[in-house]
Amino acid sequence: MSVALVTGGSRGIGKATAILLAQSGYKVVVNYLRNKMAADEVVNTILSAGGEALAIKADIADELQVMAMFVEIDRAFGPLTALVNNAGILFEQSTVETLTAERINRVLATNVTGYFLCCREAVKRMAYRHGGEGGAIVNVSSAAARLGSPGEYVDYAASKGAVDTLTTGLSLEVAAQGIRVNGVRPGFIYTQMHASGGEAGRVDRVKEALPMKRGGQPEEVAQAIVWLLSSKASYVTGSFIDLAGGR
Questions:
Q1: Which is more confidently placed, 188 or 226?
Q2: How far apart (Å, rounded) are the C-alpha atoms in residues 53 and 30?
Q3: How confident is the model over 23-39, as pLDDT tens digits?
Q4: Residue 137 pLDDT > 70
Q5: Quick one: which of 75, 226, 70 has its CA closest to 136?
Q6: Contact 186/171 with Cβ under 8 angstroms?
Q7: 205 and 241 Cβ atoms separated by less than 8 Å
Q8: DSSP assignment of 22-54, as one string?
């Protein structure tokens, strides 16, 4: 059976993706950082529908915690076959001139280093040269990587630009090893993340400026992620799906 890890799987896009993966037949690992209750709720939703799931607490910015999480997955479900790099952080809206090194480094540690570490551990288990059977990785980027998020969070946007480069480079490194690596770039999705930026109603503020005149739902992003992980996307690697209402 296929085994999937969804980082930041306790809420928003991660939660929607974890539930949809379980419905698609995956054993699902829900990674979380702080909110055990929310992660357990996702797991219980999956279990009550007859699926298999496990919640694991780990800070993906911490190399040792990432390595320990993958060992725990090996023991519980066997080698990973699908990775959704979704965990991410942003801080209150700010211009570049008011950013601190501490804030920038915290954003990059989770949003960039964390993605690299999870990719590294996944490749060690999926690659043919390591005795793996291949697999698929989807990195959750953001429309911010293209738009820059001026006056809001250029540091977050820059971290997602790095995620796009990671996606491109890694896809080329491991294509012959049976591993596909793709990205999704959601934007203006109704999730709790906007509250972290200090504006819980951000999507409603900007939706009229979007070509589709509405914000997106986490489930709409999850559909694209699950498709990219599936055999239906078997000849797709190094690609990106933009989910930002036409923006």
A1: 226
A2: 7
A3: 999 999 999 999 999 99
A4: yes
A5: 226
A6: no
A7: no
A8: HHTT-EEEEEESS-HHHHHHHHHHHHHTT-EEE
32 is catalytic: no
Give domain limits for the chain. Answer: 3-243
Residue with tokens 């023991």, as numbered in its chain: 75
Which of 40, 86, 85, 44 shows the shortest CA–CA distance to 189? 86
Q: Which residue has the tokens 């999956």?
A: 46
When the candidates are 2.60.260.20, 3.40.50.720, 3.30.1490.190, 3.40.50.300, the CATH number that belongs to 3-243 is: 3.40.50.720
The H-or-E segment that residue 198 falls in is none
Enter the pTM of the model: 0.96
Q: Which residues pair with 181 in a beta bridge?
A: 137
The two structure tokens encoding residue 84: 């959704």
Measured over the CA atoms of residue 36, residue 152, residue 17 and residue 214, the dihedral's sign is positive
Sheet holding 3-6, edge to edge: 52-57, 27-32, 3-6, 82-85, 135-140, 179-186, 240-243
139-156: pLDDT as tens digits: 999 999 999 999 999 999
pLDDT digits (tens, 9 = 90+) for 40-83: 999 999 999 999 999 999 999 999 999 999 999 999 999 999 99
Per residue in 182-219, pLDDT (tens digit) is 999 999 999 877 666 677 788 888 888 889 999 999 99
Structure tokens at 166: 């990671």
Catalytic choice (32, 115, 153, 156): 156
